[in-house]
Amino acid sequence: MACVVRSCAPKDLQDIMRLIKEIAVIYRVPLNEIRTSVEELKDAGFGKQPRFECFVAEVPPQQRSKEGHTLIGYVLSVYTYSTWRGRNLYMDNLYVMPEFRGRRIGKMLMERAAQAAWQQGCAQLRMHVSSEKPENLRFLGKNGGKDLTIEDGWNLFRFQETELRGMAAQSKP
What we know:
One of its GO terms (molecular function) is N-acetyltransferase activity. By secondary structure, this protein is of the alpha+beta class. It has helices spanning 13-26, 38-46, 105-119, 134-142, 148-151, 161-170, and strands at residues 4-7, 53-58, 71-82, 86-96, 124-126. Strand 3 and strand 4 form a beta hairpin. The protein starts with a strand and ends with a helix.
């Protein structure tokens, strides 16, 4: 299968939004809870201060999906900073449409993100993965990823909008 991994362009954002919604359905997140939009992605990725980096996987028209899509996967990442390691790349999403899995496309996307991270002087690549998806855990492990929950006992915490707003209101400038 011919597949090209390339930098995301603004013209791809409609497809990225489609793939984001596919992920939401897989994880049973109601679509009305998705705050991101094509406009938000455009501003965040291509505005004055881009806040993410994205690569897409694209197949030729003759290999398009059952629904007619040629953009069939993506990896969206942000640069973070570790006080112990310095600059890191955090992969927020690595996704390939189910009908295209098993063809090394996810690996190609992850390798392209890793290449960008290495060129930017990153020391680590990080990603959170649902324990409900053992195939994803195996994929990352097979490619050299270490499960910090198992290896180091690190736990992930999230503060939702309500908690965030509450903490912000308590802060004294």
